[in-house]
From TrEMBL:
Limits of the Rhodanese domain: 122-216
Name assigned to this protein: tRNA uridine(34) hydroxylase
Keywords, alphabetical: Oxidoreductase, tRNA processing
Record keyword Mitochondrion present: no
Keyword Kinase found: no
Length: 242
């Protein structure tokens, strides 16, 4: 059996995320879906795996939640179930930045489709920043991208504030695994007064899925948050880095 893996997120206003938890937990359990889903007042985030029909049912349920019709989902396949159990957790943030008032649903930067991303990477006038942590960057990244060297995403605001002067007046383009950290980091930069800021729509996973390897500006593999460890072009499982 091949398992369907869905990496998903959506910034949306949930007035009472606790009320959403049990129905979602019950549906996943009934459909044999495993993985982790996070719920917060700012939306939903997670990666789950199961049968194609089971994942479809859970995704449909989440799309029906307030503000989630445009839920961002990236699908891939795994030969074995990549998760041991199911967790649906309540959090303060679906991706932790610890900067009050940042609202990606309202303030995220410009989206750049994967098909247009090479032109961004190739543009000497654009500063391309990898918003992932140093461990993830060690698996692979884009040509010429700046690695902030952070241990966690929560370190990114301090790194930006310490280095913002280097990038004054320049166009900023950022990327991450699936797009969620990019949405929050672009909203953060806009709150810091940066006007020209964009990010890779759907993240590295969308790029590796849609852009042919022969045309790619990506080197290495992309770390993912399940037992596959990392994936390459076409979202083919790669595993541990050498």
């Amino acid at each position: 059996m091949t398992f369907t893996v869905a990496a998903l997120y959506r910034f949306a206003p949930f007035d009472d995320p606790a009320a959403l938890r049990q129905p979602l937990l019950d549906l996943c359990a009934a459909r044999g879906v495993k993985g982790t889903l996070l719920l917060a007042r700012e939306g939903v985030n997670g990666t789950i795996a199961g049968s194609e029909a089971g994942i479809a049912a859970v995704v449909a349920h989440i799309r029906a939640l307030p503000g989630c019709a445009d839920l961002d989902v990236k699908y891939s396949a795994a030969a074995a179930m990549p998760f041991q159990r199911l967790k649906v957790r309540l959090k303060k943030e679906i991706v932790t930045m610890k900067v009050p008032g940042v609202d990606p649903a309202r303030d995220a930067g410009t989206y750049i489709d994967p098909a247009d991303w090479n032109a961004v990477v190739d543009d000497p006038g654009t500063v391309v920043i990898d918003t992932r942590n140093a461990f993830e960057v060690g698996y692979g990244s884009f040509d010429g991208a700046i690695d902030p060297g952070t241990k966690s995403f929560g370190d990114f605001p301090d790194w930006w504030r310490a280095n913002a002067g280097r990038f004054a007046g320049k166009r900023i383009a950022m990327f991450c695994t699936g797009g969620i950290r990019c949405e929050k980091s672009t909203a953060f930069l806009r709150s810091e007064g940066v006007e020209d800021v964009a990010h890779l729509k759907g993240g590295i996973l969308a790029y590796l899925e849609q852009v042919p390897e022969a045309d790619s500006r990506w080197h290495g593999s992309c770390f993912v948050f399940d037992e596959r460890v990392s994936v390459g072009h076409g979202l083919v499982e790669v595993g541990e880095k050498d």
